[in-house]
Design a protein that fits this description.
Layout (H helix, E strand, L loop, with lengths): L4 E7 L2 H10 L4 E5 L5 E2 L7 E4 L2 E4 L2 E2 L4 H12 L1 E6 L5 H13 L17 H9 L6 H28 L8 H19 L4 E9 L3 E8 L2 E2 L8 H12 L3 E13 L7 H12 L3 H13 L1 E3 L2 E3 L14 H15 L34 H4 L5 H17 L4 E11 L3 E12 L3 H4 L16 E2 L1 E10 L8 H11 L7 H10 L3 E4 L2 E4 L1 H13 L1 H4 L1 H15 L5 H22 L7 E6 L6 E7 L2 E6 L8 E2 L13 E6 L6 E7 L2 E6 L8 E2 L2 E6 L6 E7 L2 E6 L5 E3 L1
Parallel strand pairs: 1-2, 1-7
Antiparallel strand pairs: 3-6, 4-5, 8-9, 8-17, 9-10, 9-15, 11-14, 11-16, 12-13, 14-15, 18-19, 20-21, 21-22, 22-23, 24-25, 25-26, 26-27, 28-29, 29-30, 30-31
Helix pairs in contact: 3-5, 5-18, 5-19, 6-15, 6-16, 8-12, 8-14, 9-12
Length: 694
């Protein structure tokens, strides 16, 4: 006789399932779907278009077949099946696909939502279930189909016209254009010379020239050495006195608790974490870690664009501030913040700690070093957001002579306010006490040469800030977008700066000419707003998709004949030693190489730096099927060393620099390779580059 389950709760993540199970009794079984269990097929378009209607052809992925069977069996014997996926559009869509995969009417299953994985939150969610939100599901489905249309139709065109293996995407390509445009500005920049006059008065007061002969001196006023030295010579002859003593009190207000974009920016700037690493760590902190109160989530949901904080959390923060720092640090009223950006999910919360007693000092005994650093950043930012302003006294002194005026500035901290929680306040820069009209001696006066500098390249943090300001993408897309651009070798990250590769310029130039809307930030932002309208039941997802699809499909058809090939083939003037035909220089995924012009009829290749035919090596077959076609994966040797490729090449182009394994990526379900990083063995997803310790 089959066992009857009272309650089945389905979540996405095994860690999340384990944490929730800790809070519930024997009447509940909690199981993870392990991410998306249904999606569009990998090797075909997967969208039928009939009578102006888009019909997605969803499939259960091979690596999720077993878990779907298990879910079906459990659901069949459960009295109540709860959908408990994340409360965002993607989570809503995952819940819908879970219901469809197990043969249930999506609207018949109770849906529970929570912003934090704590006992109180889970209990409250179970007491207040709702139904799956069809509008959010439609909005996510529209996004998925839109991205499939762009990627599936435009990427092959780029491959045929520019270089094999290239990709394009609605958010990806508009982001790449921003990076390329900045690099163009840098390359076109011409430095201009300017000079400053910097003085040292008695009592070691540093000051800069701000006026000369009644002319205001700014950055570009003095542009030649001749004039700078002439002013210097004149001022050295003159005497100075104090012309102004000004003291003003200023306040500095705390920043609100983090949302996704600001967390990624702060973690990049303060900790040097990539957005991808930040989100992986935040996911762990959200889903559950060991604490002094058992295993539970220690931060609220980390994919959010809301600045809202629950009243209970604000009250708890105010109580802790009063207890830890005293009344002087507690505002008379609670602070509330609002997000001015369009489409912000105000029903959600900002990212905050869930247990204020789990302070960074306590957390040090439970969290890994990288987790602790990020948690401390989140904890301190939240607590500081509910504290009083810091107060400063800004100080200004003006020293005047017959011809010139110098300005000196200082600052004195009067009350540290919210800085108290950070414990790393800037040091005061105090100016000495002087009196009005007091004579001061000019001890040193230097004429210093400078040059204007080009705009700086984007860092991952500043690029995310730019994307947010333009309305490109949403919290869940920032980190994956940068990861894809890097994986596709459109960008490299050098000393925390994002540098576009040369192929990026070629691709953007082609897209700007033939598909301008794909790289237009305004178009991309507007499409995000239209997706938001679908979620708000103010737009028809089929109509919005068709409005995009029809002209785009015409552009694709036109582009197949109208776009000239951008591929560069340079004949070397030498003949192939195997077939006698001409050799050409080509560009591949590993750089430039010499190959026979008749390829693939003749597969002769040469290393550019060392013109020798690659020595044939025995091909070793791995016990891992090719994830693309199911064929054999072979160990091969090239001019760059060992690599792994599909035995069905050139029909199948699967390749990996590191040994593939049968292990599946918990993020995207693709196979993972095994490699050594900093003397530690790790598994790395061949597709999305997710890493975990072996």
């Amino acid at each position: 006789m089959e066992k009857i389950l009272k309650n089945l709760i389905i979540v996405e993540s095994p860690t999340k399932a384990k944490t929730i199970k800790n809070f519930l009794g024997k009447d509940y079984t909690v199981i993870a779907s392990k991410g998306h269990i249904r999606d569009l097929p990998q090797n075909s378009f997967g969208i039928k278009i009939e009578n102006h209607q888009f019909i997605p052809e969803y499939r259960v992925s091979k690596d999720h077949t077993a878990i779907v069977k298990e879910l079906k069996d459990l659901a069949k014997n459960a009295q109540t099946v709860y959908i408990a996926t994340d409360e965002d559009r993607e989570g809503e869509a995952i819940g819908y696909h879970i219901a469809m995969a197990i043969g249930k009417d999506p609207q018949s299953l109770p849906r529970i939502v929570f912003h934090e994985i704590t006992k109180n939150a889970i209990t409250h969610a179970l007491e207040h279930p709702r139904k799956l939100d069809n509008n959010s599901i439609d909005a996510q489905q529209a996004r998925r189909l839109l991205d499939r249309i762009v990627g599936y139709k435009l990427s092959p065109l780029l491959g045929s016209k520019v270089q094999k293996g290239l990709s394009a995407g609605r958010v990806q390509s508009s982001t790449l254009k921003i990076v390329v445009d900045r690099e163009k500005e840098i390359r076109a920049f011409k430095a201009e010379e300017f000079w400053s006059l910097d003085a040292l008065f008695n009592k070691n007061i540093e000051a800069s020239l701000v006026a000369f002969e009644n002319e205001k001196i700014d950055k570009m006023t003095i542009t030649t050495a001749q004039r700078a030295h002439a002013i210097q010579a004149q001022l050295l002859k003159e005497s100075f006195k104090v012309a102004l003593i000004e003291k003003k009190e200023r306040e500095s207000a705390p920043s609100p608790a983090f949302m996704t974009s600001t967390l990624q920016q702060a973690a990049s700037s303060a900790l040097g974490y990539s957005p991808k690493k930040t989100m992986m760590l935040a996911q762990t902190l959200y889903e559950g870690v060991q604490t002094h109160q058992g295993t539970q989530g220690v931060i609220t949901y980390m994919r959010t664009d809301s600045l809202n904080i629950s009243k209970e959390a604000i009250e708890a923060a105010r109580e802790q501030i009063l207890n830890d720092f005293g009344k002087a640090y507690l505002p008379s009223k609670a602070r509330f913040y609002s997000n001015k950006s369009k489409g912000a999910q105000e029903a959600h919360e900002a990212i905050r700690p869930t247990i204020l007693s789990f302070t960074p000092v306590v957390a040090k005994n439970f969290l890994k070093p990288d987790e602790l650093k990020l948690y401390t950043l989140i904890y301190n930012r939240f607590l500081a957001s509910q504290m009083n302003n810091a107060r400063f006294e800004s100080q200004t002194l003006l020293f005047e002579s017959k011809s010139g005026t110098f300005k000196a500035s200082g600052r004195k901290l009067l009350f540290d306010g919210f800085y108290k929680v950070y414990g790393d306040n800037d040091k005061d820069k105090l100016l000495p006490e002087l009196s009005l009209n007091q004579e001061v001696s000019l001890n040193k006066l230097e004429a210093n040469q400078h040059f204007t500098e080009p705009p700086s390249r984007y860092s991952e943090a500043s690029l995310i800030k730019k994307l947010e300001s333009l309305g490109i993408g949403r919290p869940s897309t920032y980190a994956p977008t940068i990861s894809v651009l890097s994986a596709r070798e459109y960008i490299t990250i050098e000393k925390k700066q994002i540098v576009p590769t040369e192929i990026a310029f070629t691709v953007i130039e082609l897209l700007e000419k033939h598909f301008p809307q794909i790289v237009d930030s305004s178009f991309t932002s507007n499409m995000e707003e239209r997706l938001d309208l679908i979620a708000e039941d103010k737009g028809d997802w089929q109509a919005i998709l068709w409005e995009f699809y029809e002209p785009f499909n015409e552009q694709i058809a036109k582009g197949k004949t109208a776009i000239e090939s951008q591929k560069v083939v340079v004949f070397t003037g030498e003949n192939c030693p195997q077939c006698g035909k001409e050799l050409v220089k080509r560009k591949g995924r590993f750089g430039e190489f010499i190959a026979c012009s008749t390829y693939p009829v003749c597969k002769y290749t040469e290393n550019l730096s060392k013109k020798t035919t690659a020595t044939p090596k025995e091909k070793v077959k791995l016990d891992v099927p090719c994830p693309e076609c199911g064929g054999d994966i072979l160990e091969r040797i090239s001019k760059r060393g060992k690599f792994y490729g599909c035995g069905n090449y050139p029909k199948c182009n699967f390749v990996s620099n590191h040994q593939p394994t049968a292990k599946k990526c918990p993020e995207c379900g693709y196979i993972m390779s095994k490699r050594e990083v900093r003397k530690k063995e790790v598994y790395e997803c061949i597709k999305c580059k997710f890493k975990e310790e072996a």
